Amino acid sequence: MIQIKELSNGIRIVHQEVAHTRLVHCGFILNIGSRDESKEQEGLAHFWEHMAFKGTKRRKTFHIINRLESLGGELNAYTTKEKICFYASVLKEHYTKAADLLFDITFNSTFPLKEIEKERQVILEEMAMYRDSPDDSIQDELDELVFENHALGRNILGNEETVRGFSQQDFFEFISSRLDTSQVVFSIIGNISFTKALRAIEGPLSQIPSKRTLYARSEFKHFQPKSKTINREISQALAAMGRPAFSQFHPKRYKLFLLNNILGGPSMNSRLNLALREKYGYVYSIESTYQPFSDTGFFGIFFGTEEKTLSKSKQIVQRELQKLRIKKLGTMQLHMAKEQAIGQMAMAEENYAALMLVFGKSLIDHGKIDPLERIFEQIRKTTAEELLEISNEIFDPEQLSYLTYTPN
């Protein structure tokens, strides 16, 4: 059973007890991400994520890092376009320590000046690592192409100029202007009762003053398909194509999830994998992805191949997209696709650390947590006609942006 409690300041606590595990997974999910930065603040949310581990009012860096690691636990964080998450996994007997530490790094970071300078260099090295990894950088550059002149198109890591210029005051001002206590969730899944889970965290969270922000995200509205080719020091050509897609509030989002799974999902029997890898041996891997945001979404396809097979590979991709636009799935094809997608989602539910974060995000974005059965029902109700309609809306080749890396 999922239990939710909302405090007077708007912060919510969501919990699910799981008896057949020795662990507890818990974390803070904040509805703040890289898209909430101004152009001058590019990379600040991600920098904040790093700095949360570098000192609080009660702890120095070593004490933060050592607190759970020395107990066999894990402490981590990440930043996306729309969320910052601080989370931990520990043996159930150490849950209180994990909750206390997560509270401390989320709300009591002091951003020590010396640590800012050290972490600035760490992030610059991280940026260099991504630039040296074309598989990663092509995804970031496709974002820039699709969401041109919008915060969704900016790199989460920021750029060298902004990262080199951030001051201690920048962190405090960003948090003050963006943190809304009604947009904060503490999520817990594991072998612990709701009563015990609350006992460790409800008191400290209740002391945080209620805060609402007047800030509102700038919606992405104007997409213009573009093509771009870049020569790089790489051994194979890389291709990416994408466009805006359905938001996380769109009634067809689960249907697009199903359609994307058919086209280029993680399974080896996806249409793109069968066509490019299994039939021709042109690629080692190829994937399509669908990521919903609060006001829009992203659909993309990524693959690498030898330069001599690049043109042919692109033609095959276009052919697979066209097939889904002109021919309905047969009854058995559709049934098998639904069962595959449902099975994948059911297996994902067994990953309690990931599910804990999903609960927090869902509560922030939708104000509720849909049971998997309700999602399964939407997938099962999907018709071949609906998928054909979505294919024609999303897979139109003239409405895709194209980015290609070619070897020098």
UniProtKB/TrEMBL annotation:
GO terms for molecular function: metal ion binding. Residues 13-158 form the Peptidase M16 N-terminal domain. Residues 166-340 form the Peptidase M16 C-terminal domain. InterPro entries: Metalloenz_LuxS/M16, MPP/UQCRC_Complex, Pept_M16_N, Peptidase_M16_C. Belongs to the peptidase M16 family. This is Predicted Zn-dependent peptidase. It comes from Algoriphagus hitonicola.
